[in-house]
Structure formats: C-alpha cells, structure tokens
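note to self — DONT lose this again. spent like an hour looking for the file last time. sequence + predicted structure for the chain T wanted, 204 res
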Amino acid sequence: MKPLFLDIDTQNDFMLPAGALYAGGAERVILAVGALNRFAVERGFPLVSTACLHLENDAEFREWAPHCVVGTVGQLKPAATLVGHGQILFTKQHTDVFRSASFLPLLQEHAATEYVVYGVVTEVCVQLAAEGLLATGKQVTIVSDAVCALSEEAGEKFLQQFVRAGGVVATSSEIRVRFQNLLVGFHLEHEHSNERCGDSEGRN
C-alpha cells in the first residue's frame, strides 16, 4: 500500500476572503490541508500540491475572473500549507490538471496504489482531478473536512456522484488512522527538485 496525497489549488485567491475567486469558508480548511500535507511528508508519502499559474491574458479568464496571476500574492499558497522538503509543487494553467501533459507521467513515476485528494474547489478542480484519478483504476479518497466548494449544493452533488462511481469519502482523522503505521521512503528525485511545471513553457 502506497498512497499519494494530492493537495489541489490551495492558494490565496481561492482560500482567503480577499481572494479573487474566494470559496466562502475556505480559510477554515487551511489547517486541515496543512496537517494532511505534514502527515504525508512525515511518513514519506508522495505529496503533490497543484497550483494555478496564469498570465494576465490567459484564455481561462473568459470563463473565470482573473486569478492566480504570476507574481501576485493571490497565486501563492498559505504558509500553513507549505511543508518544504518532500512537497512537489505542480503548476498548471487549466482547471483540469490532467490537461497538463506531464501530470500523468508524474503519477506513474511515483507508482502509488491509491490517491488521497483534498483542496479547492470541490465541484471544479477537485472534481476534475478525482474523476481523472478514478479513471486510472486506483482507489481515490476525498477528504471531506479538507475541501471547500463554491456552491455547497454542487459540491455535495459531486461527492454523491463520486461515491456512486466507486470513490471513497473520509475525514482527516480517518485518513490518519488508516495510514498512521505506514512508512514509505522518499524517491531520490525529491532531493533534486520540489517544483514541477505542467508544460515545456514553464507556466502550466
């Protein structure tokens, strides 16, 4: 058993009330996200933290308000979610992380047997990531007290669909109990780099 923890887009523009695309109440899950991130690296589990990284005129802004623009405070992650060594920061330009060509190879590199997913927002980027992971045939667990939705109704609807599709929903406490006695060594590549870009342009 080797889990990979996936922290989705926990950035200031989504997590804080002053953020450009604030998900109401998201600041309340920051500590839970940070605790899961620390739990992962302390046990040597692969930890991938995705992060939107946009230019000022990115095409996505035709659908969403400008957010997570390179060089802005909004693009950064809250300090409590950063754990240093062992945390892979994977930048992306699209809501669906699987649209980044290097994401699937990154997952394959770590050869996880299952995935633990949390972050924001539940019915957009978390949903797309979770659905893509389910398609790999591995077990996928969403951590219910470490996600936040733009629409509570839409978020709950997705979680129900997710369970019907074979996904698992668990609390942070349940995740810690399940994996507390499991230790996995770091891959050597963690010693060389903790930041990945989703494309050759260096901004995905």
